[in-house]
């Protein structure tokens, strides 16, 4: 298996680690997963009339882009379903997703669950926007290769009411150190986001350094409420270097699942970010934390793009579509866990989905719970 994002940290992993606590379930209003009609799915007939198509945010009409961000803000206006004493940072339903993502980070990153767990997490979020907020438009992705020349120059980050909000206020925080001999230069922001639909958003989960993965645990105050603004530091150097079209095409044509994972996540510490990690660091702020990045609304279009790359790789090489990379079910295999197979049961998705689901049920976007496609395939 080729090395993974942050695998340089493995050498310093603790000899004995505690398992991350179970994903948050209900509590605030004692609602169960049964309260959500999409949380218990049955295989459906997917055909040309029922399939939904995901599209590039930048290619959507302004009114359609605003309809999407309005739906996201609607979710932010709905009450949390988590225990407020255990999860004070879960200030609304939108942040419930971020809390669940934090609590599952050790089990769904840098391992063989990453692609399929996030595929279903995105589907749950998309369906929630539809069922809870009446969203009827397409679920958008951020084509970060198309915007690599300068993210500011495209609708997605132009800071208008039709964007996903813009850059953060300029704050000269200096370069970001990613390894002993590897850093990236400061971008054009660094401070609070003050423009667009998510201006002045509070992102209450404090920054968790990726090195926390070496412990197999979360900080004791991981879910404390913090009065922290959404921050960004848009970085054209990072996007031009790590998320350009050539690298996108290379990932969509990876020789096997291990190489695909490597081209996504790279190896921090050896000047290789990969397109997934590169997209995160091209945004900066909370997106620089593997744990808490889902607080930023751009996280969802970014990861939908990762799913598009995954779907394209599967379409380009049908014989590899069900292939896994041979890794285990925990980040850096910390704590030690079994090798993931198609029969393995996915980590749950908190109260949104408690029913056990096998990896093989989430391999296809047109089978199992899914019935969606992308507007094009990366060929």
From TrEMBL:
PANTHER family referenced in this protein's UniProt entry, alphabetically: N-ACETYL-6-HYDROXYTRYPTOPHAN OXIDASE IVOB-RELATED, TYROSINASE FAMILY MEMBER
PROSITE patterns in alphabetical order: TYROSINASE_1
N-terminal signal peptide: 1-22
Keyword Zinc-finger attributed: no
Name this polypeptide is given: Tyrosinase copper-binding domain-containing protein
Pfam families to which the protein is assigned, alphabetical: Tyrosinase
Entry keywords, A to Z: Metal-binding, Oxidoreductase, Signal
GO molecular function: metal ion binding; oxidoreductase activity
Gene3D superfamilies per UniProt: Di-copper center containing domain from catechol oxidase (1.10.1280.10)
SUPFAM superfamilies assigned: Di-copper centre-containing domain
Domain Tyrosinase copper-binding intervals: 109-126
């Amino acid at each position: 298996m080729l090395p993974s994002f942050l695998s340089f940290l493995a050498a310093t992993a603790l000899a004995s680690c505690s398992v991350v606590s179970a994903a948050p379930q209900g509590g605030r209003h004692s609602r169960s997963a049964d309260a959500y009609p999409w949380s218990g799915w049955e295989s459906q007939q997917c055909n040309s009339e029922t399939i939904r198509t995901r599209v590039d945010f930048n290619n959507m009409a302004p009114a359609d882009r605003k309809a999407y961000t309005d739906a996201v803000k609607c979710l932010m206006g709905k009450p949390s379903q988590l225990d407020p004493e255990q999860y004070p940072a879960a200030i609304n339903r939108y942040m419930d997703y971020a809390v669940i993502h934090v609590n599952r980070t050790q089990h769904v990153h840098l391992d063989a669950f990453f692609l399929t767990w996030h595929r279903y997490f995105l589907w749950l979020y998309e369906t929630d926007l539809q069922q809870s907020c009446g969203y009827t438009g397409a679920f958008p992705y951020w084509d970060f290769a198309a915007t690599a020349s300068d993210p500011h120059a495209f609708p997605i980050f132009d800071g208008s009411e039709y964007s996903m909000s813009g850059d953060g206020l300029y704050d000269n925080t200096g370069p970001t150190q990613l390894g002993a001999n590897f850093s990236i230069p400061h971008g054009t922001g660094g401070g609070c986001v003050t423009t667009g639909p998510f201006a002045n958003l509070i992102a209450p989960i404090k920054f968790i350094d990726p090195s926390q993965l070496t412990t197999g645990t979360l900080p004791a105050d991981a879910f404390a409420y913090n009065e922290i603004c959404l921050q960004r530091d848009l970085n054209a150097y990072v996007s031009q270097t790590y998320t350009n079209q050539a690298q996108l095409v290379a990932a969509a044509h990876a020789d096997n699942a291990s190489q695909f994972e490597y081209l996504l996540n790279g190896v921090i510490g050896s000047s290789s970010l990969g397109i997934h990690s590169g997209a995160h660091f091209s945004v900066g702020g909370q997106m620089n934390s593997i744990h808490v990045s889902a607080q930023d609304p751009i996280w969802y279009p970014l990861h939908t793009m990762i799913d598009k790359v995954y779907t394209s790789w599967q379409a380009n090489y049908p014989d590899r579509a069900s292939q896994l990379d041979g890794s285990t079910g925990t980040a850096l295999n910390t704590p030690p866990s079994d090798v993931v197979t198609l029969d393995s049961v996915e980590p749950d998705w908190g109260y949104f989905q408690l029913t056990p689901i096998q990896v093989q049920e989430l391999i296809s976007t047109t089978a199992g719970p899914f019935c969606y496609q992308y507007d094009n395939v990366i060929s």
